[in-house]
Design goal:
Layout lengths: L1 E6 L2 E5 L4 E3 L4 E2 L3 E7 L3 E7 L5 E4 L2 E2 L2 H17 L7 E7 L10 H15 L6 H11 L11 E4 L12 E5 L7 E7 L9 H11 L3 H21 L2 H20 L10 H15 L5 E4 L5 E6 L3 H10 L4 E7 L4 E3 L5
Helix pairs in contact: 1-2, 1-3, 2-3, 5-6
This protein binds (3R)-3-hydroxy-3-methyl-5-(phosphonooxy)pentanoic acid.
Length: about 325
């Protein structure tokens, strides 16, 4: 009744921004991401204990953090035969301390894989992806490695809204994502609240939805061809459009700051000099640079020159996997 799993985070090249169902975390559009190594979260789950206990990075989880974990555990209990009972969950990330990097995608993917195994359910990437999605939308894309597409699905119960692997991590091992942490502070508006506000008040939302959906197959084709310039341009375009949709909300939602724009401007100048480096930007001020193995050191240096306080160079990561060593 005990199992442990390790999962990596992911960064989207075509972002998910907006839900059609807040409770089940069903998106309005499909998205596509790269799973990132070496960053990871390890989670151990044991069923059949006295009461539910949730511990994340040495702290007892409370409030919505705890509720999201319990929601995933509840879904596992509903699927498992023989009612596995209350659970203890302990989770630990190896992300650099306070680096401003979101670990929730890796955390919920590890939880989904560990909880299913602990409850005696068979390994099943699709089922684990649906389960991870209940904790955090983007987590459904961290169950498998390489490059994963989250299909938005049509059903009201969310059974067809999960991620599928398009290419594994060996497809393009030279591709790099360089996380440039410009600001360690927690963002003011969480993704969950920001996207809800955007859906409700941005007149650009319908255009975002349509455009992002159409970009997914184009991104798959560029990945297939290993076209770095094409993928870099697509990823910048998609990030700008997500942020533009938020900027058009009422009141406006702005995640960028002056140093974000400074780095973006610097990348533009570097490209003119022939350095192949592009960016993507989630719901925060810290860009993630897209480049290749031959230019990752250069990308790190230019991020630091633009004020990055921490830089993490990432390669395509693998699937979430079960481990034989437990955290308790
Ligand atoms: O899954 P969440 O609630 O962490 O939202 C993720 C939203 C973005 O990171 C901005 C985009 C994405 O697709 O990962």
């Amino acid at each position: 009744m005990k199992a442990t799993a390790l999962a990596h985070p992911n960064i989207a090249l075509v972002k998910y921004w907006g839900k059609r169902d807040d409770a089940l975390i069903l998106p309005h559009q499909s998205s596509l991401s790269m799973t990132l190594a070496p960053l990871s979260v390890t989670t151990t789950v044991e069923f059949g204990v006295a009461s539910d206990q949730v511990e994340i990075n040495g702290h007892t989880a409370k409030g919505s953090e705890r509720d999201r974990v319990l929601r995933v555990l509840e879904a596992v209990r509903a699927e498992a035969q023989g009612k596995p009972g209350p659970a203890r969950m302990v989770s630990r990330g190896d992300f650099p301390a306070s680096a401003g990097l979101a670990s929730s995608a890796a955390a919920f993917a590890a939880l989904a894989v560990a909880a299913r195994a602990a409850a005696g359910l068979p390994g099943d990437p699709k089922a684990a992806s649906v389960l991870a999605r209940l904790g955090s939308g983007s987590a459904c894309r961290s169950v498998q490695g390489g490059f994963c597409e989250w299909k938005k699905g049509e059903r009201a119960d969310g059974a067809d809204s999960y991620a599928v692997q398009r290419f594994d991590e060996k497809h393009w091992p030279e591709l790099r994502m360089v996380v440039a942490v410009l600001n360690r502070e927690e963002k003011e508006v969480k993704s969950r609240d920001g996207m809800k506000h955007t859906v409700e008040t941005s007149p650009y939302y319908e255009a975002w939805k349509r455009d992002a959906e159409a970009e997914v197959p184009r991104a798959v084709e560029l990945l297939q061809r290993k076209d770095l310039q094409g993928l870099g341009e697509l990823s910048e375009r998609n990030a700008w459009r997500m942020h533009a949709t938020g900027l058009a909300a009422d009141p406006p939602l702005c995640y960028l700051n002056a140093s974000t724009l400074g780095l973006i401007q610097h990348l533009r100048e570097q490209r003119k000099k022939g350095i192949p480096v592009w960016f993507t930007l989630d719901a925060g001020p810290n860009p993630v640079l897209l480049t290749d193995a031959a230019h990752e050191v250069k990308a790190e240096a230019l991020a630091r020159a633009c004020g990055a306080v921490e830089v993490v160079r990432c390669v395509p990561g693998g699937d979430a996997v079960l481990k034989s060593e437990h955290l308790f």
